[in-house]
């Protein structure tokens, strides 16, 4: 398949900082978001101020939101 050869070279020199040192302030309280999975659909739900969350955030939710999710296992 010599006709499929490409000479394109990816030449991006930008740094990729996930969450970076250049984070912006969140518009909402990140600790109030919960991820719900129903029939294969994943949806984020915000728990309004004044309401108590039914459960703690999972490690997956914290990680997805960029919240520190260090867990100590002994």
Tally of helical runs: 1
| Pattern of helices and strands | EEH
How widely separated are the two ends? 55 Å
Query: Which structural class is indicated by helix and strand composition?
Result: mainly beta
| Fraction of residues in helix | under 10%
User: What coarse outline follows from CA principal-axis ratios?
Assistant: elongated
Assess the beta-strand content as a share of residues.
15-25%
Query: Roughly what is the average pLDDT, rounded to an integer?
Result: 79
Tell me the major beta sheet. Answer: 2 strands, antiparallel
Low-confidence stretches: none
Strand order of the largest sheet: 1-2
Number of strands: 2
User: What is the rounded Rg?
Assistant: 20 Å
How would you characterize the overall build of this protein?
It is elongated, with a radius of gyration of 20 Å. By secondary structure, the chain is mainly β. Helix content is 9%, strand content 16%. The chain has a domain at 26-66. The chain is built from one helix and two strands. It has one helix at residues 59-65, and strands at 33-38, 41-46.
